[in-house]
Specification:
Structural class: alpha/beta
Strand content: 15-25%
Order of helices and strands: HHHHEHEHHEEHEEHEHHEEEHEH
Number of strands: 11
CATH architecture of the largest domain: 3-Layer(aba) Sandwich
CATH topology of the largest domain: Aldehyde Dehydrogenase, Chain A, domain 1
CATH superfamily of the largest domain: Aldehyde Dehydrogenase, Chain A, domain 1
C-alpha cells in the first residue's frame, strides 16, 4: 500500500466522520455503528457524552482532506510498512490517540495498538471502515495484542507514574513517551464578555480532562472575577454530568473542611495558588504584577504546559481545536518516525 492510498482512505474516513449526506464510501452498517456510538456513548463511558464525542470527531475531520494530509506528510520518509510501531493510547478524551495512529499510517508503519480501557469502541469502528476500503488494514493494524513485543519503536501516553514504568520497560527500544500536561490562560482584565465566554470552552470542553484544557489562570493583581463567572453561566449544565458533579461535590467538601479559601459559582471552584494540575471541577489561579513575572512562570513550567491561551497566544475558545501539526508535548511525531529507528 502506498502513502497516496492511505491518504485517499483517510479522506474517505473524514467524510464518514462528518456524516456527509450521500456518503457512499462505506456500508450503512458502518455508518449506523458510528452514529449509534455517538448517541449511546454516555452509557459506555460517563465522560463521553454525545456532544464531547461529536466535538472530538469534528476536530479529527478537519485534518482528513487531501490537501492537509499531503502537506502534512510530504516532507517525511515513508517506510512502506516494513517497521512496526507500538502505540499505547490514552483514554481521557474520545479518540485522543488518533493523531498517533494517523502519523503511523502516513509514515508507513505497521501498528500494534494498546487501547485505553476508557476508549475501546471508536477506533475499532474506524478500522472496520478502513477495512471496507482496503482489506490490507487488518494486517497493518492490530488492536490490543496480548503483548507489545517485536516492534521497532514505541509511542506511549499516560500518567507521570506510568511514564516511569514505560521508560524502564522500553529503555532499549526507541521511544517517544508523553506524561501529564495542562494548559494556562493569561488574562489582562480587559477581556470582552465574548472572550471570557470563549475561555469557558477551553475550561469545560471534555469536562476539563484534556491536556489542552485550561486549568490555570494568570490574572492581574487586582483582578475581579465577577465578569469571569458571569461569562461562564452558559456552561452551568456541566454540573448535570454525574461524574463531573461528583468531582465538584467531593472537592468542594474537601477544601471547605480544610478551610482553604476558594471561589465557587456552583459548578466550578477556583483556588489561588501557583501549583499545577488541580483536581477536576477546579481551576487554579495566581496574580501577576508584571509581564516579566508571566514570562518567568511560563519558562519555569514549560515542560508542564501544553498550550497557552490569551492575547498573543492561542485565541480564547481555540485550545481544543488543534491543527494537524500542533503536536503533543511539542514533539514532531512525523519527524521522529522518519528517523531510522535503531
Amino acid at each position: 500500500m502506498t502513502r497516496k492510498e492511505v491518504i485517499s482512505d483517510l479522506c474517505k474516513l473524514g467524510l464518514l466522520i462528518e456524516n456527509k449526506a450521500g456518503n457512499t464510501c462505506f456500508s450503512s452498517t458502518i455508518q449506523d455503528r458510528l452514529q449509534d456510538y455517538i448517541t449511546r456513548s454516555i452509557y459506555k463511558n460517563g465522560w463521553f457524552d454525545s456532544q464531547q464525542v461529536s466535538n472530538a470527531l469534528y476536530g479529527i475531520s478537519t485534518w482528513l482532506n487531501e490537501t492537509t494530509l499531503n502537506d502534512f506528510a510530504k516532507e517525511y520518509a515513508f517506510q512502506a510498512f516494513k517497521p512496526k510501531l507500538g502505540l499505547i493510547l490514552a483514554g481521557n478524551l474520545p479518540l485522543v490517540g488518533f493523531h498517533d495512529v494517523m502519523c503511523g499510517l502516513l509514515s508507513g508503519y505497521r501498528l500494534d495498538i494498546k487501547m485505553s480501557s476508557e476508549d475501546q469502541d471508536l477506533l475499532p469502528i474506524l478500522l472496520d471502515a478502513l477495512t471496507e476500503r482496503n482489506g490490507s488494514y487488518p494486517e497493518l493494524i492490530r488492536l490490543n495484542p496480548p503483548k507489545l513485543v517485536g516492534f521497532d519503536a514505541i509511542i506511549g501516553t499516560g500518567s507521570d507514574s506510568s511514564l516511569l514504568h514505560f521508560k524502564a520497560y522500553f529503555k532499549n527500544i526507541p521511544h517517544l513517551l508523553r506524561g501529564n500536561r495542562t494548559s494556562v490562560a493569561i488574562l489582562t482584565g480587559n477581556e470582552s464578555p465574548d472572550e471570557l465566554q470563549a475561555l469557558g470552552k477551553d475550561i469545560f470542553s471534555y469536562f476539563g480532562r484534556g491536556c489542552r484544557n485550561v486549568t490555570h489562570l494568570i490574572v492581574p493583581q487586582e483582578y475581579n472575577f465577577d465578569n469571569f463567572f458571569k461569562a461562564l453561566i452558559p456552561y452551568q449544565d456541566v454540573i448535570q454530568n454525574k461524574k463531573y458533579g461528583n468531582n465538584y461535590d467531593y472537592n468542594r467538601a474537601v477544601y471547605l473542611l480544610s478551610q482553604r479559601e476558594i471561589l465557587d459559582n456552583g459548578f466550578l471552584l477556583l483556588m489561588e495558588t501557583k501549583d499545577f494540575q488541580p483536581p477536576l471541577a477546579m481551576v487554579y489561579y495566581h496574580r501577576y504584577a508584571s509581564q516579566l513575572e508571566i514570562q518567568d512562570y511560563l519558562k519555569q513550567h514549560e515542560k508542564q504546559i501544553q498550550c497557552v491561551v490569551g492575547k498573543d497566544f492561542i485565541p480564547f475558545g481555540k485550545a481544543q481545536i488543534p491543527s494537524i501539526d500542533d503536536y503533543a508535548d511539542g514533539i514532531n511525531t512525523m519527524a521522529w518516525l522518519a528517523k531510522p529507528q535503531n
